[in-house]
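SEQUENCE-TO-STRUCTURE ENTRY
===========================
Question of interest: how does this chain fold, as expressed in backbone structure tokens?
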Amino acid sequence: MKHLLLAVLAIFFGAFLIYPLCGLLGGAFFVTDGHGHRAFTLGFFELLIENRLYRMALVNSFEIAFWSTLGTALLSVPLAVLFTRFLFPGRHLLRSALLAPLILPPFVGALGIKHLFARFGTLNLFLAKVGVISLQHPVDWLGSSGFIGIILLEILHLFPIFFLSSSAALANIDPAFLDAAANLGASSWRRFVTITLPLARPGLFAGACLVFISAFTDLGTPLIFNFSTTVPTQIFNASVDANSEQIGYAFVVTTLLIVLVFFLLVRRFGEGSSQAMPARVSRSMQEETLSPWRGRAATVVVSLLLFIAVLPHLGVILNSFAERWFFTMLPTRYSTEYYAEVFSDKFTAGSIANSLLYSGLSALLDLGLGLVIAHLLAREQFRGKSLLDALSMLPLALPGLVLAFGLLMSYNLHGWWLWINPRSNPTFLLVISYALRRLPYIVRAAYAGYQQTSISLEEASYNLGAGRWRTFSRITLPLIAPSLLAGTILTFCFAMLEVSDSLLLAMEARFAPITRGIYEVMGRPSPDSASLACALGVLAMVLLGGGLLLGSRLMGQRLGQFFRA
């Protein structure tokens, strides 16, 4: 039985992970001539540099990723220090609330932020009312092309990830080092620069890499802002234009190389600092209680930052209820008609049904795969165990854009294989893609359940004559059921809001899931299209938020643990 399960897993990973990745390399480095012969070439990569449009796409993506990373670092590190070292009113509540921006993908937040920060949006109208600016010369907060708006949304969405990574790094620092430096007369700033930052470097660098890669590979936000000169948008264009497929391959492989470089840098910097700290800190960090006025000031500042971070969410919610919102700071008339229209409109209702179908099937597939993989890793001994563990975790390191493009190009088949071709019906590959992207969540959840279940219980059952299936169904499964249920809920909810896979693989409107539906609705010429798209976004946001809370409760963990690297 073990060998059969390993064979099935080998076929699954080989067909839907290894084969598409190899296909990406083949498409980028090899070209077929008129006689059907394949020849090695670097011409497509040279074209990325020589062509002005492609070159600007690379430059813009690097700039978006760089400024997003810098912005998140400037926000997150001071916040991490504040929450790790000091006590102030509302600290625990605010710490949990800081994770709220993760609930909504930035491309959905773009729907709401446009109304707030547009040239004649809420902010400029407020500033004009109080006499700070003139509406004859409004401030262009988002930039004429939306470039600044993309960076702003990435910062607001991604800074909680950097915050979690920074907090974990700072919490693991042995306070004895800081005490020794203080005894030698070092100031607070000198201790922070010479001790805290170097010791926290691995965690800080890992968080920075996660943010950089996430911002670099984000597809939805540039599309909503109609900003086409980025690497993800060029890959998206190549997926629908047969004449640009080779350029798409080159962009995707370039993205893979960037991810690989950052992965190696994380390994290098992490291992380079592994000897700087003892295996276990001598004691926990002593938290200092801020004075009353400083504590209140900290609460106000963090609350203000949180308010700014959830502005895209508030904008989406307001826009979804706005029956009339034109040249005013807030809507002048509210209505729930757009929520009713979401379910009455044939396209939006179909997108909800499609997402439920794709996400439900992918969650069931993940449940089966995750349970099998976790059992093999926790209870069996076999050659290639480390390889199976690595393959099951590999999707965490692969941007969804890369995997979706690889699946799209690898299974662009004809004949009796047409049912698997996403250009004719993407259902099969969408389910596979969703399942692959979230498989690590269910594997981690199931493996944690196995670790918390003593193997002696199973051994006692075997000694009493029970077979493997009876032992599993009567003892092991009931004990790990909460972890499995929580992991399945998480995979389902995240699949509902998967962006890159949905935008690349679902090409026809009748197969569109929610995220593709939001993008298509935004492209309608109707003046109510933004409000309808926002109503669809709010429903998705509520679903994901509720699923995360339910999953964290079932696993008995804090919500932030699901976002740790």
